[in-house]
Design a protein that fits this description.
- GO terms for molecular function: oxidoreductase activity.
- This is Iron-containing redox enzyme family protein.
- InterPro entries: Haem_Oase-like_multi-hlx (IPR016084), PqqC-like (IPR039068).
- Pfam families: Haem_oxygenas_2.
- By secondary structure, the protein is mostly helical.
- It has two domains: about 280 residues, Up-down Bundle (Heme Oxygenase, Chain A); about 110 residues, no CATH class.
- About 55% of the residues lie in helices and about 0% in strands.
- The longest helix has 29 residues.
C-alpha cells in the first residue's frame, strides 16, 4: 500500500520542495540507496502540462520512453482494490461476503428480496453475528497477534466490508453500484463498521490522550504534535523494513510485493474523495497532491501506471479478496472508511497524512532489498519515487493541510489525530503479519 503528497508553493512534483523538511533518519542515503538515480525521464515535457524537473525524473525511475514494452493497464484492470469474484454460496454454511456480493451485485436489490423473502433477515443476522465475533464488545486489540482474536471471523468481516465499499469505488457498467445507497446496504455496513470502529478508536486512545483538552490548540503546534506522534509510533521503525533491505530472499520479497499488489488502494481516488468540501490552502495542497499522482501530466508517470509496471515486471497475480487475511484488507478498508463517508472527512486528512509521513522508510528499504537481489530499478520505480517525494509531500501536508485545517476548525484536531493513529495501527498489523509470514516461507 502506498501513497504520497506535495506542496503548492514550489514547482509541481519537486522532490525537495521544502528546503527545511526534516528527512527521517531512516532515509535512503542512510541505507546505501542512491534514490537520486530513480528520477530519470528523457521524454520531453508534455506541452500544456507541468513536468517533473529533469533531476527529479532521474531519481523517480521514470527515465524511459512511454512504455513500449510494458502495455498500459487495460481499461478494466483495477489495481486499487482486490478483485472479489462472486463465490458460490454453500447452502449449508453461507458466508456473509458471498451473500452480500450476490445480493448487491446481482441486480436491483428490491427485486432480489422479493423473490428471496428470507434474505434480508439472513443478511442482517449474519452481519450482527459476524461483527460481534470479529470485534467482541469488552475487548480491544493491542496487536494483531492477540491470542483472543478470532482470525477467521476477522477475515470474513473485512471481506464483507470491502464488498460494500466496492460499490462506491467502481463505474456503473461494472455492476457494483446499482444498490449503492439502498437502505439495507447502508444498514448492513453500519452494523459491520460500528464494532470495528469502536475497537480502532479504543486502541488509538490507549496509546496516548487524543481528546481536545490534551491536544495542542494552534495549527502549527498541532502539526508538530502530529509529526512527532507519527515518528514515535511502532510502525516508524518496524522490523520488516530491515528484513526487506538486508535479509529477505527474492521469493520473500516477491511474496511481500504480491501482498502489496493485493492491498493497494489507489491514492489518487482517496485524495479526490478527501478534498471534497475543503477550501483554500487545504484544497490547493490536495490538488497538488492529486496532480503528482497523475504524473504531473505525463501518462507514463502516473503512479497507478508505475504500480502496474511492478505487477507486470514481476508477473504478480494479486490474490482474490477471499484469499487475503484481514490484516491486508483492513489496510485498504480503513482508508475507504476514512475517505468515503463525510462524517470521517477530518479523519481522512489524518489518515492520508500518515501515509505520507510513514511511507519513505518502507519504500527506501524495499528498493534497497530489491536492488540487492537483482530486481530491475525500473520495476521498483514506484517505490523509488515514493522514497523521495513523500518526504517533501509530508511536510506539505503538515503545513498546508493539517495546520490550516486546525486553525480554521479547531475541533477537527481530534479527528485528524484519530485518523493518523488508526491508519498507523492498521499498517502495523499488516507489517506484523507480513514479517511473520515472509520469515516462515
Amino acid at each position: 500500500m502506498s501513497y504520497r503528497n506535495s506542496s503548492p508553493a514550489d514547482a509541481p512534483g519537486a522532490a525537495h520542495a521544502h528546503a527545511g523538511a526534516r528527512v527521517p533518519h531512516d532515509s535512503a542515503a542512510a541505507h546505501g540507496v542512491d534514490v537520486s538515480t530513480f528520477l530519470e525521464f528523457d521524454e520531453p515535457a508534455t506541452p500544456g502540462g507541468a513536468a517533473y524537473p529533469l533531476e527529479q525524473e532521474v531519481a523517480l525511475g521514470l527515465d524511459v520512453e512511454p512504455d513500449a514494452d510494458v502495455p498500459a493497464p487495460p481499461a478494466e484492470q483495477h489495481l486499487e482494490l482486490p478483485r472479489s469474484a462472486l463465490v458460490v454460496v454453500d447452502a449449508h454454511r453461507p458466508r456473509l461476503p458471498a451473500l452480500l456480493r450476490t445480493a448487491l451485485f446481482g441486480g436491483p436489490l428490491d427485486a432480489t428480496l422479493a423473490v428471496r423473502p428470507g434474505l434480508e433477515r439472513q443478511l442482517l443476522d449474519g452481519a450482527r453475528d459476524l461483527a460481534e465475533r470479529a470485534y467482541p464488545s469488552g475487548r480491544t486489540t493491542v496487536r494483531q497477534s492477540d491470542r483472543w482474536i478470532d482470525h477467521e471471523a476477522r477475515d470474513e468481516h473485512q471481506r464483507a466490508i470491502l464488498a460494500v465499499y466496492q460499490q462506491h469505488m467502481r463505474l456503473p457498467h461494472q455492476g457494483t453500484s446499482e444498490n449503492q445507497f439502498h437502505p439495507l446496504a447502508c444498514q448492513i455496513l453500519r452494523i459491520l463498521e460500528q464494532p470495528w470502529e469502536r475497537d480502532m478508536l479504543a486502541r488509538a486512545r490507549r496509546q496516548q490522550p487524543i481528546d481536545a483538552a490534551s491536544l495542542p490548540a494552534s495549527g502549527r503546534a498541532f502539526a508538530a504534535w502530529y509529526k512527532q506522534a507519527a515518528f514515535l509510533h511502532p510502525l516508524y521503525e518496524h522490523d520488516l523494513y530491515a528484513f526487506l533491505a538486508s535479509e529477505a530472499t527474492r521469493p520473500q520479497i516477491e511474496w511481500f510485493l504480491t501482498m502489496e499488489a493485493a492491498g493497494e488502494a489507489a491514492f489518487d481516488d482517496l485524495v479526490a474523495l478527501g478534498q471534497v468540501g475543503t477550501r483554500g490552502e487545504v484544497k490547493m495542497e490536495m490538488a497538488q497532491n492529486f496532480w503528482d499522482e497523475m504524473g504531473n501530466g505525463k501518462t507514463h508517470a502516473v503512479h497507478t501506471h508505475l504500480f502496474y509496471r511492478l505487477i507486470e515486471g514481476l508477473a504478480i497475480e494479486p490474490p482474490e479478496a477471499d484469499e487475503l487475511p484481514w490484516q491486508v484488507l483492513a489496510g485498504v478498508n480503513v482508508m475507504l472508511w476514512a475517505c468515503i463517508p463525510r462524517r470521517n472527512a477530518f479523519r481522512a486528512q489524518g489518515a492520508l497524512g500518515a501515509v505520507e509521513l510513514l511511507a519513505p522508510q518502507r519504500c527506501t528499504r524495499l528498493v534497497h532489498g530489491a536492488l540487492r537481489l537483482g530486481i530491475a530499478k525500473r520495476t521498483v520505480s514506484y517505490y523509488g519515487a515514493h522514497a523521495i517525494i513523500d518526504i517533501g509531500h509530508a511536510e506539505g501536508w503538515l503545513e498546508h493541510v493539517v495546520a490550516p485545517q486546525v486553525d480554521s476548525v479547531p475541533a477537527a484536531r481530534v479527528d485528524i489525530a484519530e485518523g493518523l493513529l488508526l491508519r498507523a495501527d492498521a499498517s502495523l498489523d499488516y507489517f506484523d503479519y507480513c514479517l511473520a509470514t515472509a520469515r516462515a516461507l
